[in-house]
Every structure is written in C-alpha cells, then in structure tokens.
Amino acid sequence: MTSSTHHAAPPVSPPVTLLLDARDDRTIHHAAYQRAHPGRGRIVADPTPHTNSLAYLALDLLRAMERDSFSRPDAERMSTDPAWRAVTCWALTTGLEEAIVLRAHRLTAERLKRLATWRAETGIRLTLIAHTPTADDEQRLRQRLTTAELTDLTCVYGTDAILNALGPAVTGRRYGPPATDHAYPLPSLPRSGVAAFRADCWRRQNDLDFAHTDGQYRAGYAAARTWLARHTPAPAPPDTPKAADTDPDEPAPLQDMEGLRLFLARLTVLSPSPQHTLARLRGAQAGFLSQALLLDVPDDLAERGGPGITTVPITPRVAHTITTQLPNPLRAAAVAALLFTGTAQSLLSMTQLASVDEHATRLAIDRDSRINVGVPPGPRHMYAVPARARPLLRAALEFRRRTPRTADHLGLFANCFGTSERFDHLVRDISLSIPAVLHPHPAEDWHTAARCWHLNTPTPATPAVLAPPPGARP
Q1: b or e along 152-188 (b: 16 or more beta carbons within 10 Å of the residue's beta carbon)?
Q2: Backbone angles phi, psi at 253, to 5 degrees
Q3: Cα 455 to chain centroid, rounded
Q4: Do 112 and 145 touch, CB atoms closer than 8 A?
Q5: What is the tens place of the pLDDT at every residue in 334-353?
Q6: Whole-Å CA distances, 167 to 160, 163, 429, 447
Q7: Which superfamily, per CATH, for 3-166?
Q8: Looking at the whole model, is its pTM more than 0.85?
C-alpha cells in the first residue's frame, strides 16, 4: 500500500492575515513574540536574513517550534525536502494551529509558495507581518503573494489595528525543560514466587517501603483482573469431551500470546525501576491465579531486558529532551522506541510502517517471518507505546509516508540504527542514558519468554491482596 492511501482530505485553511506595517514598528514584533506559545499551538518565525534558501526557511520554522539542535556544528543536516517534510509532520502531529512569519516583505515568491503548500497541507492559520513603507512596496509584495497563490488575504493597516489583530500576550508560559520526575525508590525485593512474595516483603520491609511495594503489587493485580475480564475466554467446562490423545491433567496454554505480551508491556513500560516491575508482575501473577491461570515469567528478568527492565519512562522531561534535540521525526521516534521498548537495535530495525497501529498505541515486530522465510510466523514481539511517545511515532509514520516510493512493508527506522558514527553522535547529543544501547542483552526480552496456562483445577487460593500478610516483622 502506498503512502497516498493514508492521507486524509486536505484541511481547509482560514484566510491569510497580512499585517502591513508601514513604520516597521518594534512594538509589533514584540507583541508577536509575546503571542508565541509552541505548547499551545502558536509559533513565531523570523526568517534568517541574507538568504533565499528554502531549507533555511524550513529550519527557521523548526526553530520556532523549539527544535533547533541542528544549529550545533556537528549536528545532522537536513536538505530542503526532508526539512519541509519534518515541518509538515510536526505541525500535523503536535496540534500546531497558528504560525506568524515576520519580515514577510523579504520573502521571495518561491519561499512564499513553500509556505502556501505547507498551509494547504496542514490547515494552519498563517499570519504574515510585512514592512511596506510605500504603495509600490505593497504592490510588489502583493504580486509575489499572487504568484505564490496566496490570494485569500485579510489585510490590516496601522499599528493599533495590527496589535488588536495579534491579540493579547500569552500568560503562564514555562521556559526550559520540565522539572525532573521523582519516584520512590524501592529496596531490594525478595526473589520469592507469587505465593510467598507479598508475605516476605511484609516481613523484611519497614512500613513505608512496604506501602510503596504493596501499591505496585496491587496495581499489577488490578490490571491483570481487568485485562482478563476483557480479553481471556473462559476455560472449557469440566464436562467438555476431550480428544483421546489429550492428557486430562495437562494444563491448556493460553491462546492469545500476542495479547499477553502486549498486556505485560503495558503494565511495565512506565515502571521507574526493575524493583517496581517485579512488584507489578507478582501482583499480576496473583491476579491470573485468581482466575485459574498460571502466569510464568523468567526468574532473572535483568538478564533478558525488555519493558520495565531496560526501558526509560517517557516522562515530560524525557519527551521534552527528545522533541527539542531531534528535529528529524525519524531520529526522534527511533530514540523514543529504544527507550520505551528496551530491546535490541537489531530487532527494532525490523519495524515496518505496518508494525504501528493506527493510533500509535502499540508496536508489533514480526521477527520470525523476517528471519526464517517460509516458516509460519509465531507470535509477534509486542510493545506498548506510552502516551507521550505517540506523537513521535505518528510524526515518523507521516514522514515516511510522505517520502517517495514508500510502502507499509518497508522499514520505519531504516538507516537509523547501527554502530555508525552518526548514531553515536545522535545518542551523545540528546544526553539521555539509553540502557538498550549501553547494556545490550543477547537473550530475547523477558515478556516474550513469558508463558501462561489454564489450570484444570477449581479457582485456587491466592495471596490476599487487601489484608495484611501473615507473619510478624523481625
């Protein structure tokens, strides 16, 4: 399927607002900057002087969106078409509504044409501020606008009228990155199985540590019960005839392995530490046991890696770092995927455009069919996409689909990973620790090794969730 089938009808853009400032009043430029708030969908771009480059204009718009890391001497360069695709994709996926462009009288007809195309593709409200001291200056500007097919204009004259058209200054804007997130650190947890885990935590921990550990345990229990109520079919009743060659005492495996993997990934993708992950999993195992299901996960999660073990929660600060430091949507999405999957680059490199669902809530990698051609595929590797990473995945998909000769079976992160010097620079520039890169793990991720069976017994007794565990503290 080609990219054209994914594009919705172009949005209808409001008329272009042309603010004609005869005196080049600094008050107007100051008021325009006071109006800017990228987080609320409004930007102000000041085109780089002394150049008519189309690429520079795209970079000016990216800078107005607070994506300006390309200004570093060793940063990756984007040529004209990729830069404009990035501008379009970020505008579509981040809710950009209004763009104010200063010094529009200096823009050539070709640059104005690019702005017109961008406006038509995104439906953005475009405002141009131009210095036209004479009638001839205004006439020349209007001719260039007509050539660029920007003819639906609402013109405003005079300082007072222009200030009224710009509107009031934005209040409450935060400058700089969000505050660092903090999670209560859990102590080292016992390696006990699900039957004894909660009681052992009760005996070994003080009241505060146990309260936090038990909160994670309860969250896992509740999530498991909710997921099972929505996804797992009831096991066959005891009087159902069985095949002659079937051992009646043999547990029946859970059929929906992909669903199980996705549940485990969603449960742990925002876990701040392996200790939190372990507590959530023990609670989930108790929830499964309460429904006569045995959930088995690897004993040593750290050796395998994966969600909640080698992942980094996509907090507001992490999302801010990625979006401001990586203006290329593909690079931003690739780094985010390394953080929220915690998996190997070699596996992520198999991600196809079709691997991401319509709303960018999950990522499914079909490794078996890519490696073993002709062999029936097994369950796919499933990963949950956190809410703050979804705009990055959507922008990357939009970027790929707007690239010539693109189809859904092609790689989403093609040429993004590897041991190349470019990728090393990219990781260094964002100043984020990426566990999957720093500490690669050869074994498959823990949640892909998890197994689950229906127990051929009545609903077993499970560890109490709300009552205090038995046993005194030391």
Answers
A1: eeeebeeeeebbebbeeeeeeeeeeeeeeeeeeebee
A2: -70, 150
A3: 38
A4: yes
A5: 999 999 999 988 899 999 99
A6: 11, 6, 37, 52
A7: P-loop containing nucleotide triphosphate hydrolases (3.40.50.300)
A8: yes
